[in-house]
Amino acid sequence: MTPFQPLKDYQVLITRGKGQADGLKASIEENGGTPLLVPLLEFTLPDRLEEVRQCLAAIHTYDWIILTSQNGVDYFFQLLGKRPRTLPKIAVIGSKTEVALKRYGYEADFVPSEFVAEGFVSEFITILEPGTRVLLAKGNLARSVIAEAINEGGASCDEVIIYRTVLPASSEQELVHLIKNHAIDIITFTSSSTVNHFLQIMESHELGTYIDRIVIACIGPIAAKTAVKHGLSVDVCPDVYTTDAMVADIIHFIMKRNTKGGTLQ
């Protein structure tokens, strides 16, 4: 019996960085789709490395560390180096970040029920006492929502940039070629950074009209808000902010549209 393949004949663009696309790629393939991997994110070490290392050398002076992503976990431990690994309590945003932390032998002391900055901080500040010292280790493009809320709540939060997010030079021409040849049916965005880098390329090559009929899927409300702010029409945004949930909602969207007699092709 032929398995149900709701994404058969659909070309799905994956914009997330190398090394993080495997799960989404597999999910698309399992449902019959063709994944197109064009990473719009690349991660590098931060500027002012010596300052960052000095900050991490004082890690013992903090009560909590916040790690906001898998990348944050990896770069944190890379930059921490061989220092003694008696760490403060660790808070993470999201189940994938929690899993990444476990690979280094640590358990998260706090995981929010909602995997966005606003949801995280609204829960996290309720367990902080005035004067509690928190270190937020993040990427250069991360927002300041968490640190601002913690400081306003009476605790103290310092921020340290432990990695940079950049646009891979090799991806631009590949994306332009796919767009111009109408080779993409669905675009998946897994962060605001992927949205911004995508639009940067579209604007520089004047390709705005080429994407009118492409289905836009965002993993969560922050990426969706960025897309809408810049004029994109978001068709899919799951309630659970995971790639599996995004693919499930893409399938639901396609089936619903096809039932109404429309087509994505």
Draw up the topology in text.
Elements: E1 11-14, H1 22-30, E2 34-37, E3 42-44, H2 49-57, E4 64-67, H3 70-80, E5 89-92, H4 95-103, H5 117-124, E6 133-139, H6 145-152, E7 156-166, H7 169-180, E8 186-189, H8 192-204, E9 215-218, H9 221-229, H10 243-259
Parallel strand pairs: 1-2, 1-8, 4-5, 4-6, 6-7, 8-9
Antiparallel strand pairs: 3-7
Task: Characterise this structure.
- With 265 residues, the chain is α/β, with parallel strands linked by helices.
- The chain folds into 2 domains: 11-41 and 167-259, Rossmann fold; 49-165, Rossmann fold (3-Layer(aba) Sandwich), CATH 3.40.50.
- The protein has 10 helices and 9 strands.
- The protein has helices at 22-30, 49-57, 70-80, 95-103, 117-124, 145-152, 169-180, 192-204, 221-229, 243-259, and strands at 11-14, 34-37, 42-44, 64-67, 89-92, 133-139, 156-166, 186-189, 215-218.
- It has a 5-stranded mixed beta sheet.
- Strand 1, helix 1 and strand 2 form a beta-alpha-beta unit.
- Helix 5 (117-124) packs parallel to helix 6 (145-152) and helix 8 (192-204) packs parallel to helix 9.
- The longest helix has 17 residues, at 243-259.
- It is elongated.
- The two termini are 26 Å apart.
